[in-house]
Amino acid sequence: MADAAALPGLEHLNGLVRSVTTPEFADVTFHEVLARTALNHVPSASAMPFDWTVNPYRGCSHACVYCLHPDTAILMADGRTKPLREITVGDAVVGTRREGAYRRYVTATVGATWATRKRAYRVRLSDGTEVVASGDHRFLTERGWKFVQPSESGGQRPILTTNNRLLGYGTAGAGPVPEETTDFRVGYLSGMIRGDGMMLKREYRRARGGTYTAHRFRLALADREALDRSHAYLTAAGVTLREHAFSPASATRRQIDAIHSSRAADHEVISSIIQWPVDPSSEWSRGFLSGVFDAEGSCSRGILRISNKDQHMLLTIARSLRAHGFEYVTEPARENGVVSIRLLGGLLARRRFFDLTQPAITRKLNLVGAAVKTTAPLRVVAIEDVGETIDMIDITTTTGDFVANGVISHNCFARGTHEYLELDSGRDFDSQVIVKINVAEVLEKELRRGSWVHEPVMLGTNTDPYQRAEGRYRLMPGIIGALTESGTPFSILTKGTLLRRDLPLLTEAAKQVDVTLAMSIAVFDDALQHLIEPGTPTATARLETVRAAADAGFRVTVFLMPIIPHLTDSVAAIDDALTRIKAAGAVRVIYGALHLRPGAKQWFMQWLQREHPELVSSYLGLYPGASTTAPKAYRAWLAKRVRPLLRVHGLDGRAEDDHPRDTPVSGLAARAEARTAGVVVTSRGRAAASRAVSAGPVVPEPRLF
User: Fold this and answer.
1) How many alpha carbons lie under 13 Å from residue 559 in its C-beta half-sphere?
2) Tens digits of per-residue pLDDT, 470-519?
3) Which of 262, 381, 418, 426 has the greatest count of CB atoms below 10 A from its CB?
4) What span, in angstroms and rounded, lies between the C-alpha atoms of 19 and 14?
């Protein structure tokens, strides 16, 4: 919603269109402005090795509230689940989107993952579902999105109560999926082969007299996943198989492949495997349901059925379902004698069946397209303070939500900005982001001027162009297009994984102009990163972005900044960082020591006193009084430690001699390397950990609008 009163103290700024708060960004206010200029000229007195910048944002929404327990089960687009801790950028998950009168499950792509430590709360539902989340997490209820707890800042926001019912299907009765056992594999083969295989043992007369016994086994399937699983299980049991194309594809039918054997010994092994057990174990029944569903099951329009005409098969299907607590009905036989057993219990029962049995065929598990209808008893019965601070993870998706432990969960965004907003009023706004909504159009006009001489333009030296707000406003595609069309070379420095979204566009731009990319990564130890940079993507996520950019053909520089005395300056820490950077495909690393600006120093020292009190006296010696820069002796010591490692890893830039780059990033890299100037800390905010350490040099922006 828009709120003209949400910008206290900034009413004097020209170009203010509106101030916006949205459910997608909890406790962040976006101040949308019409910029008069887009190109910012760096003052001649500046030490920066470039003259022009573009900053679509003022402030940064990188900070995140980090919401869910790492073990939370996330529904993937292929119908399977994966623990939140295993989710990576680029994964396809299930989100939701309103289409007409209904909200439907749709495919969503993970754009970023985040991790930190937060106070934990357990949300318990009437069906037994539990979700552990932070107080700032939101779930979709029958009355809209609601937070777990009230805002710590005192602001008003909708919160969960015991009168609310969450939307989704829940996880009642669904425990962790057991590992595959021998009984599971035997049960799977029994269901699969008895359901869709051919076993033949027949005596034939020889033409010259006498008889012989023929043994034949064949399993022909259009779904490779089930065929491959069966092949693997049988091979592990000692069966020797051959494979051939059974039936070619046609306009109406997929290709069918087959595995087969004519050996008597193989036939005997398979026959022994699929014998009916006298007292089937729970694992055998679980495997049998998995195999027979792959062979003869279907899930269409929300109805799961398993069909067969053999009475013993039907009886075993029914017994196996009952053994695992499922309810079902047996439908009347069709004219051909086939009987279907239909699972009852709606989406919750189907999801529990899939999670329990883990069928091989992915296409049968697809939930995408189904309407979000809650029949499960998902009323909130308790919201409990766990009583401790724990590691938590959040993800960003293209739909703004995802399915966690069977309930619809919203992306969590910043309650406060990651970087201090250098506003003209001089006031600190911890949760205010200025967005130049017309920046691309203004930039396009400026680049068409006859006076523009196509000097290189740098993005990302003041505020990150790929901060999380870019996922909402999508300003960068227009900026990239304007620079490319005008023939202007440009460089991007970011710590945001959202860069991957625009790699196809940047690849096309690089065919016409010089495009240089750099990624800023300061801390590679996850625990320390959670404390110092709780609002930024993890080092792993950023390295994956480096790899994606390198794979797209870019020669990526990584800014190892800042190196923090006594915390990230050991040989082991630096060597580990450089090893991972090299493996990601970067070609150069620029490093620098921690730089503490006035106004930020006190907050960093408070953080240090709280987290590492044993280092306070050392830091008072390194940064005495009003000193902001690490002493020359420390910087020289750091250079002697880092430079040999850069050479060993081939990241000192020497390999780039054959690839000169007259661009802002390369110039900035050279200047930074020569001065080992470190990184500027620019914070006056209240959260020292996320404000005190900035991962990129800051350039003055003399003219905002």
Assistant:
1) 32
2) 888 999 999 999 999 999 999 999 988 999 999 999 999 999 999 999 99
3) 418
4) 13
CATH 3.10.28.10 in the chain is located at: 182-365
Q: Are strands 380-397 and 102-125 parallel, antiparallel or unpaired?
A: antiparallel
514 burial level (CB within 10 Å; 0-12, 13-18, 19+):
middle
Phi/psi at 453 (nearest 5 deg)? -110, 20
**CB-based contact 475:56 (threshold 8 Å):** yes
Q: Could you identify the residue written with the tokens 């945001």?
A: 496
Burial of 82 (0-12, 13-18, 19+ CB in 10 A): middle
CA dist 564 to 50, 81, 581, 604, Å? 27, 39, 18, 12
CATH topology of domain 73-172+376-410: Endonuclease - Pi-scei; Chain A, domain 1 (2.170.16)
| Cis peptide leading into residue 8 (ω within 30°) | no
Contact 436/473 with Cβ under 8 angstroms? no
Phi, psi of 235 (to 5 degrees): -60, -40
Q: 366, 372 in Cβ contact below 8 A?
A: no
The pair of three-digit structure tokens given for residue 407, joined into one six-digit string: 């309930």
Task: Read off the tokens for 578.
Answer: 């450089």
Reply yes or no on whether the pLDDT at 254 is more than 50: yes
Sequence letter at residue 514 = D
Residue-wise pLDDT for 53-63, tens only, equals 998 987 655 44
Run of H or E residues at 96: strand 92-99
Question: Which residues does 152 contact at the CB level (< 8 Å), separation at least 6?
Answer: 135, 415
Contact status, residue 589 vs residue 560, Cβ threshold 8 Å: yes
Is residue 663 within 8 A of residue 503, CB to CB? The reply is: no
Q: Is the pLDDT of residue 355 over 90?
A: no
CA 222/CA 521 separation, integer angstroms: 46
Is the separation of the CB atoms in 13 and 426 below 8 Å? no
CATH superfamily of 182-365: Homing endonucleases (3.10.28.10)
10 Å CB burial of residue 605 (0-12, 13-18, 19+) is middle
Cα-Cα end-to-end distance for the chain? 24
Cα–Cα distance, 112 to 99 (Å, whole number): 25
Confidence bin at 284 (pLDDT 50/70/90): very high
E strand spans, 347-431? 380-397, 401-404, 407-410
Q: Of all residues in the chain, what percent are helix, strand and coil, respectively (each to 5)? A: 30, 30, 40
User: What does DSSP say about strands 92-99 and 102-125: parallel, antiparallel, or unpaired?
Assistant: antiparallel
Are 413 and 468 contacting, i.e. CB atoms less than 8 angstroms apart?
A: yes
- pLDDT of 106 strictly over 70: yes
| Locus of tokens 């030296």 | 461
Pairing of strands 57-58, 432-436: antiparallel
Burial 127-155 (b: 16+ CB within 10 A, else e): bebebbbbbbbbbbbeeebbbbbeeeeee
> Facing residues of 144 across strands?
141
d(CA 339, CA 649): 66
CB-CB contact of 252 with 151 (8 Å): no
Give the residue among 295, 325, 324 at the shortest CA–CA distance from 308. 295
Residues carrying CATH 2.170.16.10, the chain? 73-172+376-410
CATH class given for the domain over 448-691: alpha beta
What confidence category does residue 173 fall into, taking pLDDT thresholds of 50, 70 and 90?
low
- CA-CA distance, 281 to 323, in Å (whole number)? 9
Beta-carbon contacts of residue 363 (< 8 Å; ≥ 6 apart):
223
Compute the distance between CA of residue 522 and CA of residue 589 in angstroms, rounded to an integer.
11
